[in-house]
C-alpha cells in the first residue's frame, strides 16, 4: 500500500513538473500566403503569422494550441491603412522559408519556426536564440510567453519609455507594470509608464522591437546571459514588430507612425506652466497670477490640484475655496492665464454625488470577478473606478467635462493616479474585470493600459468642449500609443541633483520611445530645492516640450520668485529664452507630428556612426539645430561635453567650435551649455508675457554661417484651432549656403496661411568676412549693426517675409 501511494506521488509530482516546463514550436509543416501575410503551421499545432507591414516593418504573432485570439490592440489603431509593398518575394528552401522585401530578408526555419532577419546587403540584424517558447501558468491559466534572441557583437540598447537609468540599457533588466513610485531613484523599476519598445544598435545599423502585449512584461538586455536578450509577458500573445532603420531616428519614426503621433497642441501649451499641490483658496491662486505679471515672468498656464474640488469629488468645485470659479477663470484668461485642473479616476462613494450616482445607475464602474464593485481608497476616501476600456464609459466620462471646459472656461486637464493607484495595495486586485473593448479581461491584462484609456476618454471630452480651440491634456501613466491622447510628466520626483540628471535622461528616453510631449516637475515635487538647483532645472526644462514647475505643498514655495531676487532674475531669463524660441519649438513639434521624429534626440541619434556617442547621455538636441547639455552638479561653472561631428557655434558667445571632440562649455548660473549648428536659421518671437499677448509683426531669424549648405524649416499656422487640417498653414524652408566670402539664403514657401508678420529681421552670426551689404532679390540693401540681447555686435537686415534670395558679402 505504501509503495502504491509513493508511486502515485511520483506521478503527481511528475505531472506538476511537466506543467512548469517550457514548450517550443515544432517542425513547420506548411506556409500559406495571403497577400502580405504568411501563416506557418507546426506539427504540434503552433502557428506563426508573419505580416509584412511595410518594407521595413515585420509583425510576428505566435499562437499555441488554441489558435489566434482576436487581433486587437490599443497601441496600433485598427483603421490604419497599410501602405503598398512595392517588392515582395516568397521562396521555399530545403530547410527554411524566405520572405524578401525591398529592405529586408526574413528566414523562417522549418525545424522550429525560428527567424533570422538580414538587410538586403546580407548583414545579420536579428537572430532568434531559443526564439519563441512558453510556459503554462497554473495560477492564472495564462501562457507566460517568451522570446529570446542572440546578442550581436557590439550591440547597444535604447528606449523603453520612462526608465530612470542610464541611456544605454545593455546589461540591465526592466519590468513594465505601471506603478505609483513616490520619490523614485535612479534604477527604480517599474515606474509609471508602460512603453514596450526598444531600439538596438549594432555594427552602426539600427532596428527596434515593439512587443505589443499589455500584461506585466519584462525585458532583459543581456543581463542574465551576456549573449542573450529576451522579453516575456505573464499572459497574452507573443506579438511583436521588428522595425528596421537603418538609423535610430528612422526606427523611432517608423514606430511613431505605427502607433500614430498626436495632433498639434495649442501654441500656448508650449509656454511656461506653474503648478503646486495645492493653490487655494481663490485669493491665493489669483495672487500667484499677479506674482507672475507684476514680476514680468512669462507664464501661460496655472494649475489647480485636488484641493480645488469639493471633498476631492471629481468635476466639482469647493464652494469655500472657489465660490465663483467661472468668474475667476474668465478674469485670469483676460490676463493671459489658462486654468488647468486635475482629475483622478477614483469616484467617491457618496449617494448624494451626481457623478457617483450616474456611474452606479449605469453600471460604469469596475467589478471584481464574483460581481462586487471594485472599491479602493484614494484622496476622497473609498471610491469606485470607471472601466475606461468600455466605449460607453469613455463617452460618459468625456461628457462630464462640459461643466469644467465649456461652462467654466477651464483650458486643460491633467490625469493623475491612473496607473491605477490605490492606497490599500498600490493598485487593483488581479481579479478585477474589464470590458477591454469587447475582449473581456482581468486586471492582469488591463492594468498597463488603464491610464492610457483614462487619458483617451479625458482627451475626447476636453476636445469636444474646447472646440474650436485645441485641447490640452496631461497624464502620468500611459501605454504605447498614448502620445495620441496626451502629454505627460515624469511623476513624483525629488528636489535633488540626481533627479535633475534623471529628468534629462527620462525626457530623452520618452521622446525616442514615440512620446515627445514630456517634461519633469521642475525643481522636484518632493522636498525643496535651493536657488541654484532650481535655476539649473529651469534652464534644462526650457528645452523640454512640456515646461512646468510643480511641487508638493508640504515642502515650501516653489515659484520662480521663491528663492530671492538673484535667482528670480536668472530663472526669468531662461523662461524668456523659451518664449523667444517658441516658433522653433513649435516647428520641431510639427516635424514630430508629420514625420514621427523625436523632439528630443540623444547624442547617438545625431551620429550613430561615431562610437563616441554610444555611452554618452547628457547631451541632446532639441530639433534639428540646437544642442543642449545641462549642468547637473552644484557649484559648477561649466562642463566638458561632446560635440557631434560638424561645425557649431556657442550660443552665448558665437564662438565657433569643431565637433567630433569634447569641448569645455563655460556656463555660470545665467547660462546652460547650448550650441547652434552651423548653417542653421533659428526663428525667434519678440518677448511676450504669454502667447498672444502681442501681435507678432516681425519674425527674427538668427542665421548662422556655414562654409557649405544647411536647410532649416519654420512652420506656422497661428497656433490655435483646426484650420491647419484644411491646409491653413505655411512651411518656410531656408537653405543657407556659405563660401569664404559670402552667405546666401534661399527661401521657399509652401501654403497659403498669412501670418501676422510681414517682415523678417535677419541677424547674422559667425560671418568670417567683412560684410557691408545684402542683396535682396537682386537689389542692394544696407546691413546695419546692432547689439544683441547677449551683448554681441552683429550685422542685421530687415526684409519682406516673402523674399526669395538674400546674399550677404
TrEMBL record:
* Domain Glycoside hydrolase family 31 N-terminal per the UniProt entry, residue ranges: 48-220
**What range(s) does the DUF5110 domain occupy?**
698-766
CDD domains associated with the record: GH31_glucosidase_II_MalA, GH31_N
Please indicate which superkingdom the organism of origin belongs to: Bacteria
Any single GO molecular-function term of the entry would be: hydrolase activity
Q: Which InterPro entries match?
A: DUF5110, Gal_mutarotase_sf_dom, GH, Glyco_hydro_31_AS, Glyco_hydro_31_C, Glyco_hydro_31_N_dom, Glyco_hydro_31_TIM, Glyco_hydro_b
The Glycosyl hydrolase family 31 C-terminal domain extends over 596-682
Which UniProt keywords are given for this protein, alphabetically ordered?
Glycosidase, Hydrolase
Annotated Glycoside hydrolase family 31 TIM barrel domain residues: 262-587
Per the similarity annotation, which family is this?
Belongs to the glycosyl hydrolase 31 family.
Q: Which PANTHER family match?
A: ALPHA-GLUCOSIDASE, HETEROGLYCAN GLUCOSIDASE 1
Could you identify this protein by its name? Glycoside hydrolase family 31 protein
Top-level taxonomy: Bacteria, Pseudomonadati, Bacteroidota, Cytophagia, Cytophagales
